[in-house]
Amino acid sequence: MTLSRIAPYLQATPLTLILAAFLVLPIATITMVSFWDYDSIQIFPAFVFTNYEETITSPVTWNTYINTLKFTVIVWAVTLLVGFWVAYYLAFHIRSATAQMVLFLVCTIPFLTSNIIRMISWIPFLGRNGLLNQTLMQLGIINQPLEFLLFSDFAVVLAMVHLYTLFMVTPIFNTLMRIDRALIEAARDAGASGWQILTNVIIPLAKPGIAIGSIFVVTLVMGDFITVRFMSGGQSASVGLMMANQIALLQYPAAAANAVILLILVLLLVGAILRIVNIRKEL
């Protein structure tokens, strides 16, 4: 075999080894542990389906997965709405490339701090004696503090939208900047209204960015547990939080089984997105 034939394999070897060590091997290990048995003090390296049976047959687990999917759908819809219009404004209403870059960098400033710090910063704002409640009461809009603002599903969704909107803005903005402005001018010259241009030209051409942003947001929300723990005050649950609690109780096989099921569910969601939008073809 000549050097020219083996060169591609040599070039791919480092990445293959890295993926095998840091992706394939951990997933294989988690899958293997998910079939082990355990009790209150130790883990037995056996091959049983008990962990999966308990997960699938438990109404509490079903409710937790449904709750996680609820958060995912709501956060995805809100981040898509907010992210698309932010990206649209930057791409089509800001003419200067320098101004576009500056405003885009402004959007990334919150990422200079930790996710936990940005999330916790909502607590003094939304709390019973927080800034928002106090302001509304001083203005006479409400007579008593709004309890649903903090330690609720609303607080969880708000924090997630705050944390993950930029993951929707970035790919959509990148896709919108690739759109040939001549297409928009041609549609306008043909008598198309602004709404028709948006729905028939811009949104179809922005589908790859929307799909990529959706994949980012869906995978992040499905695996999130720290936001649910802090912002719900223990009043809500997610699969990630359930797994964290199982790990804290040393129930590693049960947590591994949930991790495998969650991975399969996320892959199905990503596959559904890619089936709707063929990113390779669109790009």
Structure description:
The structure is a single chain. The protein is mostly helical and 283 residues long. It has a single domain (59-282), classed as Orthogonal Bundle (MetI-like fold). 75% of the residues lie in helices and 1% in strands. The protein is built from 15 helices and 2 strands. The protein has helices at residues 3-33, 50-57, 59-93, 97-108, 115-120, 123-126, 131-138, 153-178, 181-189, 194-205, 207-223, 226-231, 239-248, 252-276, 279-282, and strands at 37-38, 43-44. It has a two-stranded antiparallel sheet. A hairpin with a 4-residue loop joins β1 (37-38) and β2. α3 (59-93) packs across α8 (153-178). The radius of gyration is 23 Å and the shape is globular.
Brief account:
By secondary structure, this protein is an all-alpha fold.
List the helices and strands and how they pair.
Elements: H1 3-33, E1 37-38, E2 43-44, H2 50-57, H3 59-93, H4 97-108, H5 115-120, H6 123-126, H7 131-138, H8 153-178, H9 181-189, H10 194-205, H11 207-223, H12 226-231, H13 239-248, H14 252-276, H15 279-282
Antiparallel strand pairs: 1-2
Pfam families: BPD_transp_1
Transmembrane segments: 12-36, 71-90, 102-126, 146-169, 252-277
Main location: membrane
